[in-house]
């Protein structure tokens, strides 16, 4: 069975030495999260993940979920008990509003905890993950009485949540959706239609399931401007808030999937189910986006999470498996062969994963902190800048960290040779599970379009200009520091490529939008490399400063950071030039074939 | 259920217009394979693949193989009947020696047919595929009476073959193997030990299974120099050649795998089983390499094959699925939305796969032809040069086309969005099946080491110098041809990068072998891009010549070739520079961490 140890020390390094956690102690929520409290919470979360979630990961994959003839769904053996422990320990409400029973801690901390839980059991972590998204939508767009009715239950976890967007003919293009909402006399609506791919749509973990459903009110405009968001609970709440009569929504079938078998992915049938409008009529998409942005960052975390556990296991195997001898002469003459970690090509795979994971973790926490600042900072300028960063980086984190997460899981599997292909070792599950993160919550091609087609131009390019300025200033600041030069030189080169690509888009995409579409995925990955490289620059600098000050027990941890930073610059940053070359080639050869010619 | 139509026209274009098929008509075997015979055979093979193999692909994956308590194994429903049809039609003996009942046609043709069969059902095509490898080993290294006894049955297909290398503690490093061979009085050996990951190790398709087994004769030297190859049939042949008594070899269990569920991957237990030495004692590795080289090209074909069927289905879906509108304005205003094939990012994925597939097919057939020349050409210089090419390109084809095959299957799956993740559409099976090709027959890291550590230096670098000369001469020849310039310019740039990387290796890897290991995978992929780019150069040139001569009905086929060639140069060739940059960074940051620091 795969092993897992939560990367607590690495997370603390990011929080304390990169984010300067203590500097934000004056913000609401942060005052309770002193460094020692944070350390205790992370340690506890890591143990919980390893002790409670991890043992159910492989068995949950093998068993999957079951739907009975009556439409009820049971989760794999052990999930109910583990979920009860999860609720009891209060993990679901870590960063939720204290008004609704949450602990009000920073979202940044919740993001770190979410990584640990997703590493140890991604399919399981999705149940509370979707609930968090539903909570966010109700919190931001619900009426006070909706908040009062639903949020305490959902924050507690006794009720869970879902997002219902997709229909058989309608995924990315929500304008096509057909689910209907007919007003009832009492102000509620009767919802009818079919939704597919609904994660956690039906299960046995909670006493009620709160579906957030996109539907079209009778007579609403066509397209996305006629879509509204509804709360449709599985059981209609009684006056006292207890679950009452069964609502007209049910699970028609479970999807047979490639992975995340522990999560029940449902076809949900709405047959005149009672629903209540959330926010304004026909403005459902805006509310859904609140939920989706939350979810997209969470999916980026999943990419990192699978990559991390896959890495840890590949390392353990590479240390243990004896095969061949080191090229430069045997390292372990006393053994029948050397452990494969001596081989450069095995190192290449391990170092690549490591270099992405550590920077990915920093980027997620850095971005999550900006998310906290966007809501909690006093200065409106700070809030605006933080919100800009969040908007700009959300598609990058989702798209790039899930693409890399999958590639890394595949690489970690490769370290095992044939043993990676058989189920027993658990590596092929990581590959199957990681794959969905590239697809759901907006396929990665959609993230790239969101970045290039929307986020770049917002507010006259304010966010991207601020990003350029921030990264450029960092390079400039350390230009004359010889120890930093290997890092800032590569980073500056990457930044230049990104700026050139941005210029190219400004010049070529206006009159020919296909040039933007043709560039989008490469642009997103180019952006991702620069953002990750920026994190490596910051981490290298922090490591150097601490080493110079005398780091004691942390010395090798910090020296390893410098090695990994160097590896990132040597081996990953060169890709920025290839991205720029592809982007600059434009859409011509991509679009020239007739659709029938394929 | 996935669709499939064998790419017969594309294969004929390569054979006739790139390889100049008719020019080789004087070679043994080729004289019977006139262009019209070739066309008829390919057409028939394509129909057979689509009609007989394809319908069992998804069902075979779902059902898998079953092992009974007595160790017998049954293949999925329909496999027995389909295999009988396969035998009856004589597909297994297409290029086998007529002395043993084969049709003696060129291996090049067999490679093309193998692509079609592997596309339509890779797990199934492995049964005859492994038999072909075993035939090759016996043909090259077996004694005359072994050939007479086994080959006619194996060519017919009534007996099948396997390769038994791997043991639980021993994969890449065959020197560690423990399976023992004790001489019997009659000249045979008693073989004992356990082999794992044995594809087609036990099944119900054939009346006998001929295991080729690596084992160590009692008292043999340690390491790879003490390994011998044995024939160990499941049933001991009687005097008259009919299968007689059961031998002491049995299937201990079936591996639970990520994919290729239709193929029985067995743990094989040898318990004093009777075996006969093939070739010389302690020279088993050489014989096994004959088999493995055959198999490695076959695995490269699998990479292409899965990529091709995945592409065809992604194209069908992209034409059919309505979602969103073209960026430059709706193309199908009469429909609720445009088919997603209008979107540049969908095109990017489809064109990438296409550009790799068409060049990959050309490279495989080009290399297979050199394989035929190596055996059949009269001029020893021609044979030598052809053999050099084969040796050099085998690891590239295996490593690069299976890495690309997997990436392409993933990309094709991505075109489907969420529908790609559910089993129903069959796309996730292609991903799971394609994955093994990167691992077996020498994991791709081993292919890269074979290329960099062995093939480059052989005969003073004769093969690589000939490759540089051939590709360089092609660029030079068309340098002043304006229509060819876009292609030769990119190709020349790629070739320069490859030559620089080779120089770098020569300068830096001698005194520090880790620099070779650290460069190997990047070098293999750099090589692959240049080899594929060279194929695109040749295809573009052939297309231009034919268009200039008036191509009639073929006009759009040829124009599409030019577009795809352009796309390859725009979008795939830029990667060569990134590979070179990574290679040139050396092994330092890759190897610096202590093994305990990971």
UniProtKB/TrEMBL annotation, chains A, B:
Taxonomic source organism: Aureimonas flava
Acyl-CoA dehydrogenase/oxidase C-terminal domain span: 283-451
Name of the protein in question: 3-methylmercaptopropionyl-CoA dehydrogenase
Domain Acetyl-CoA dehydrogenase-like C-terminal: 467-594
Sequence ranges assigned to domain Acyl-CoA oxidase/dehydrogenase middle in this UniProt record: 163-271
Keyword Cell membrane: no
Cofactor(s), names only, from the UniProt record: FAD
Residue span(s) of domain Acyl-CoA dehydrogenase/oxidase N-terminal: 80-157
Catalytic activity: 3-(methylsulfanyl)propanoyl-CoA + oxidized [electron-transfer flavoprotein] + H(+) = 3-(methylsulfanyl)acryloyl-CoA + reduced [electron-transfer flavoprotein]
Any one Gene Ontology molecular-function term assigned to this protein's record: oxidoreductase activity, acting on the CH-CH group of donors
Alphabetical keyword list: FAD, Flavoprotein, Oxidoreductase
EC number: 1.3.99.41
Family to which this protein belongs: Belongs to the acyl-CoA dehydrogenase family.
Superkingdom of this protein's organism: Bacteria
Known role: Involved in the assimilation of dimethylsulphoniopropionate (DMSP), an important compound in the fixation of carbon in marine phytoplankton, by mediating the conversion of 3-(methylthio)propanoyl-CoA (MMPA-CoA) to 3-(methylthio)acryloyl-CoA (MTA-CoA).
Enzyme class: oxidoreductase
